[in-house]
């Protein structure tokens, strides 16, 4: 099954719920994340800002993932 949608948490599960026979769920090449590059001006940015920039640069923007990162970062650095 090829999906024409931005990647997000739970996408594969949602597709398999709608189409129980789907063996493999792949993103259409137009929606596949691109390899990350170091954002310009990365020096001096917070880990939260860097992670959000990484998500944006790779086409993986997902507020749930960003919030989870921030929660885990707070627990580890806290």
Notes on the structure:
The termini are far apart. Strand 1, helix 1 (11-18) and strand 2 (26-27) form a beta-alpha-beta unit. The longest helix has 15 residues, at 63-77. Helix 2 (47-57) packs antiparallel against helix 3. The protein has two domains: 1-32, no CATH class; 37-78, no CATH class. It is mainly alpha-helical. Helix content is 44%, strand content 5%.
Query: How many H/I helices?
Result: 3
Strand order of the largest sheet: 1-2
Structural class: mainly alpha
Mean pLDDT: 86
Low-confidence stretches: none
Radius of gyration: 15 Å
Fraction of residues in helices?
A: 40-55%
Give the end-to-end Cα distance, rounded to a whole number of Å. 42 Å
Biggest sheet: strands, sense, closure? 2 strands, parallel
Let me know the number of strands: 2
Number of domains: 2
- Taken in chain order, the helices and strands follow as EHEHH
Overall geometry? flat
Strand content: 5-15%
How do the strands and helices of this protein lay out in sequence?
Layout: E1 2-3, H1 11-18, E2 26-27, H2 47-57, H3 63-77
Helix pairs in contact: 2-3
Output the keywords.
mainly alpha, two-stranded parallel sheet, about 80 residues, about 5% strand, flat, 2 domains
